[in-house]
């Protein structure tokens, strides 16, 4: 089963068609890159998938559920969020603190958030940097932290 399915996605901005009839299927655990020239629709695709823009036509499914037109905060609760080229963690806070913020929003408990955050950091192989100030991480590690 695919974790993400995009079928027949078209996005118009007035008379401009940014994406036309795009199909994309991503399996769980698959890591892909998306390349193309400026204006090719890459950012528009990510914005449609992340709920920033609703599709003009087509459907987007995440974990088998249609998400087309849902808002970013609703998608985040489902486990889908986007990152940006410029990584902006809470630079003066620890790596652990940065991850705890997201976990706390789901649990409401500092202790549970800490446990979840440490599990996530272990999965991302950043647990040894938990008490390091996030602004001192390499770009690659900051990108992993943002995920």
Could you explain the architecture of this structure?
It is a single chain. With 147 residues, the chain is α+β, with helices and mostly antiparallel strands. It folds into 2 domains: 2-78, P-loop containing nucleotide triphosphate hydrolases (Rossmann fold); 95-146, no CATH class. It has helices spanning 42-49, 72-78, 95-107, 110-123, 139-146, and strands spanning 2-13, 16-27, 57-62, 65-66. It has a 4-stranded antiparallel sheet, with helices on one face. Helix 3 (95-107) packs across helix 4. The longest helix has 14 residues, at 110-123. The two termini are 22 Å apart. The model has no long low-confidence stretch (mean pLDDT 92). Residues 20-147 form the ABC transporter domain. GO terms for molecular function: ATP binding; ATP hydrolysis activity; L-isoleucine transmembrane transporter activity; L-phenylalanine transmembrane transporter activity; L-valine transmembrane transporter activity.
Features:
single chain, 147 residues, alpha+beta, Rossmann fold, 2 domains, 22% strand, elongated
User: What's the assembly state of these chains?
Assistant: single chain
**Low-pLDDT windows of residues:** none
Strand content: 15-25%
Number of helices: 5
Percent range of helical residues: 25-40%
């Amino acid at each position: 089963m695919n974790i993400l399915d995009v079928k027949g996605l078209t996005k118009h901005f007035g008379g401009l068609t940014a994406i036309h009839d795009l199909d994309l299927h991503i399996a769980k655990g698959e890591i892909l890159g998306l390349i193309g020239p400026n204006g090719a629709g890459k950012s528009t695709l990510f914005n449609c998938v992340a709920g920033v823009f609703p599709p003009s036509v087509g459907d987007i499914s995440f974990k088998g559920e249609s998400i087309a037109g849902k808002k970013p905060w609703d998608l985040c609760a489902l486990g889908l969020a986007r990152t940006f080229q410029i990584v902006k963690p809470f630079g003066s806070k620890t790596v652990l603190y940065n991850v705890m913020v997201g976990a706390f929003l789901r649990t409401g408990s500092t202790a549970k958030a800490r446990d979840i955050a440490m599990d996530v950091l272990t999965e991302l192989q950043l647990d040894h940097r938990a008490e390091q100030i996030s602004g001192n991480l390499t770009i690659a590690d900051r990108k992993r932290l943002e995920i």
